[in-house]
Write a structure and sequence with these properties.
Blueprint: H1 3-51, H2 53-78, H3 80-89, H4 93-121, H5 135-146, H6 149-164, H7 169-189, H8 201-225, H9 230-237, H10 243-277, H11 280-316, H12 320-356, H13 360-367, H14 370-375, H15 377-393, H16 398-421, H17 425-470
């Protein structure tokens, strides 16, 4: 091997090793959190699926509808990360606290709006073409999940603030604790154990509501009492004359991310609705494979979030080389993880499916979705890396048109063509996701490159202006 090649590899490792370590340090608590969420999702699906196929199909429909609102709320809260990250890197502690105060206010308002919208939608559930025998289950479960939106919004805002200050461990412990409460509640209330009432699907909903409220109380307590967050408490508790301006800043940074997240999620939720057109077996199998797919998505999202935090830190320091380097490091990790996820789905997909449902018809239908599930892993990993990198730079407006183009203009017509036009049913739904994600990946990559080029130009102009004033 040539000496120049060895030198090049050594230089690459020297440049990227600190970035890999920082992403690993930030990403692992997020990953543990996401794994906890996956475990709860798996447990919900297993317990509800074991209780009955109708309950599983009803949960799939309701969760798919609420996923849009939940993801949009999370997207809105994630607009806090680049703002907090930049302030944290400049050690503006009071400003961090004031931003959290404003963020809690505006996130609560947005969540109340979503609660009103989803509450109105309740009266039109019978218009979605779902099997009539599922409607009583759907209506009861829907109202319980509706009550979880506001506590989730408050938790999300605090979580993203913690992430921006490079503390990904505190939210991890809160979510893990909530997950334990959720699983225990499911065990007691779905089937009626140890003297508890047998509530079926409603029991799963009550467990979810209780867990989400407990997580919110826990993280608020951490911000108000723990030593780590003492430096931000003055800004959090003291009203600031700049609160209105901070709220506006949070809104302008957050709403494009919210819409982008919602549009992307809408494609998957619309896929559930379309799957329901073909009966409860198609809908239930779609829910099972969607749950399994979280193994990949949540993992890529974890290191995407870590990338966003570090990009925000570098943005606060105006270090464009650092932004490029940390984004490349995040991409390397996510591509490796997508390869591992694909191998797991290929080798163990059938075993995973059988964990969730004893119904042979649901199992057979779900097995057909494994191939398209594997196909879209790389596209998902790439688009999550670059979407989070863009969020970290605070240049979030391109996310709007990219998501609309990829998931609405291209994704939905292609989904309908494959699922209904070519009679591929939910298999066609899953293949449509691959095209949408590939388009999103290409557009996000181009937008990221353009954003960094503009930041480099702005930095060079600022330096040139400073030199001319010195002369």
């Amino acid at each position: 091997m040539k000496a120049s090649t060895l030198t090049g590899k050594a230089g690459f490792w020297k440049a990227y090793k600190p970035e890999y370590k920082s992403l690993w340090r930030l990403g692992m608590p997020v990953l543990v959190t996401q794994v906890g969420i996956i475990v709860v999702s798996f447990a919900d699906t297993m317990m509800v699926g074991a209780y009955g196929t109708e309950e599983l199909a009803a949960a799939a429909f309701v969760n798919s509808l609420f996923m849009i609102a939940i993801v949009m709320q999370l997207g809105f809260a994630s607009g806090m990360t680049p703002i907090i990250g930049a302030l944290y890197s400049r050690r503006q502690h009071d400003r961090v606290g004031a931003t959290l105060r404003a963020g809690l206010q505006i996130n609560s308002i947005v969540s109340i709006g979503f609660t009103a919208i989803m509450g109105t939608l309740y009266f039109f559930l019978d218009r979605f073409g779902q099997p009539e025998e599922l409607m009583p289950l759907i209506r009861q479960y829907y109202l319980i999940i509706l009550a979880t939106l506001l506590p989730m919004a408050i938790f999300n805002c605090c979580q993203q603030t913690a992430n921006g200050t490079t503390d990904t461990a505190t939210p991890m412990w809160m979510i893990l604790g909530a997950n334990i409460i959720n699983i225990i509640g499911n065990y007691l209330l779905i089937g009626g154990r140890f003297g508890c009432p047998e509530l079926g699907l409603a029991g799963a909903g009550i467990s979810t509501l209780t867990a989400r409220c407990m997580a919110t109380v826990g993280i608020l307590t951490a911000f108000l009492t723990s030593k780590r967050y003492r430096v931000y408490r003055n800004g959090l508790r003291t009203p600031s004359p700049e609160t209105a301006a901070i709220r506006r800043h949070v809104w302008l940074t957050s709403y494009p991310v919210m819409i982008q997240s919602g549009v992307e999620c809408f494609l998957w939720s619309f896929g559930a609705i379309v799957s329901g057109w073909f009966g409860k077996i198609q809908l239930a199998s779609y829910q099972v494979v969607n749950t399994i797919s979280q193994l990949g998505f949540m993992t890529y999202m974890s290191f995407g979030i870590a990338t966003s935090i570090r990009v925000a830190n570098y943005t606060g320091l105006r270090d464009t080389n650092g932004i490029r380097r940390i984004t490349s490091a995040g991409l390397h990790l996510n591509l490796l993880l997508s390869t591992i996820a694909s191998a797991i789905f290929l080798i163990g997909g059938s075993d995973l499916i059988r964990i969730f449902t004893p119904d042979p018809e649901v199992t057979a239908a779900a097995l057909l979705l494994i191939a398209p599930l594997i196909l879209y892993q790389y596209g998902d990993a790439i688009q999550l890396t670059y979407a989070n990198a863009l969020r970290g730079t605070s240049n979030v407006k391109p996310l709007l048109w990219i998501s609309l183009t990829s998931y609405i203009v291209i994704g939905i017509p292609f989904l309908l063509l494959l699922a209904k036009g070519l009679s591929m049913k939910n298999v066609g739904v899953y293949y449509s996701f691959s095209l949408a994600l590939i388009v999103a990946s290409v557009l996000l990559y181009r937008s990221f490159r353009s954003t960094i080029a503009k930041k480099e130009l702005e930095t060079s102009q600022t330096v040139a202006a400073g030199n001319s004033e010195t002369d």
